[in-house]
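Work Package 3 (structural annotation) set out to generate three-dimensional models for the target panel prioritized at the project kickoff. During this period the team completed the workflow that converts sequence records into discrete structure tokens, so that structures can be stored uniformly alongside our sequence database. As a representative example, we reproduce one entry of 422 residues exactly as it appears in the project archive.
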Amino acid sequence: MVGLQLDDMEEAQYFPRLIRTRLLEALDDTPAVLIHGPRQSGKTTLTQRVGEERDYAYVTFDDANMLAAATEDPVGFVGRLSKRVILDEVQRVPELFTALKREIDRDRLAGRFLLTGSANVLLVPRLSDSLAGRMEILRLYPLAQCEIEQVQPGFLQALFTDTFQVSASQRLGEELVQRVLAGGYPEPHRRAVGRRRREWYRNYIETITQRDIRDLSRLRRLDAIPKLLQMVAGQSAHLFNVSELAGPFQLTRPTIREYVGLLEKIFLLDVLPPWHSNRLKRLVKTPKLHLGDTGLAGAVLSIDVPQLIENRALFGQMLETFVYNELKRQASWHENELTFFHYRDKDQYEVDLVIEQVGGQVAGVEVKAASTVREKDFRGLKRLRQATSRAFSAGVVLYDGDSVLPFGDRLFAVPISALWAN
């Protein structure tokens, strides 16, 4: 175990994380708090900064000796830990969770264990169930645009209070494409655009394949993972089509589902479920796939800014995923719990994102890569408004324009830049 001390260079490169307030609240009343999210999303940096302020010791299970000790004798290992301790990459020692449960039951000191993990324990029931009622789980995503810009966003608040004001903004143009390809992982933002960023992503995928996937599965065809990730990147924001993904591989449909589930477990992929209502009988019930970060998507597709500007169809897909990721990241620290869906029916009405707030309020977000908006762009939102009636809060078409414009009852065209504006 080691103490914590951050140097001046780390301070200069640090992006303040807006989930920090929720983390501190959880540490004040819960014995164990787990921050999980993809590797290199900033979990260790965030927890070490909080740990330095609150006098936590630090243990990482990326250290082979620590990993061996904890695996061999989890009860003894936990018993010898400091009063307050950060346990980094705890998913590598699943045996530890039962020992942590016993220790917490012996002493329910708030904030005693601050855990991080690069695998989704909610998808590993035996891990999450062992600390039920004793642990709060927070998800840390790669950086949101508002965190990069260091502003407090107001988009979700406006979406659920119907308070969009008619105003002028500025069209982003090529800057929007650059933001999409930059993504949100902190380290690439510290590197020069181009080859150095692509090199980071190549190393990142290699590390994920050789370490996390080996730890979590017994897959024989590890070589298929980077290829499948490339396939998924090219189909991000599309309906989940198992046959289409299985086509290039000599793998069965169940195996492809297993691989997709594994990518979801390590936060590289999100499966977005369909929204449903008893009032509508012709809904499409297939989920959508979204890659977890558009910077990663651009890297695995080997596409740069000029190429993405030229390929408007691919840009439209990646922009939808970019908006989805941005709103999911903002939702992780939002005051109210938000659940995300997509909407599509057999009459070809669709809404890219349906967001449901605790209490039943529903909002819709449609994403357009164009700089103009037309009445027909609201057809899916109008169908959603009709289906949800009084529960419908607002419907927004996000576009690369320069004005917030009303388009009828609770319907607005809003510049994409509003996602990270004050």
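The chain is about 40% helix and 15% strand.
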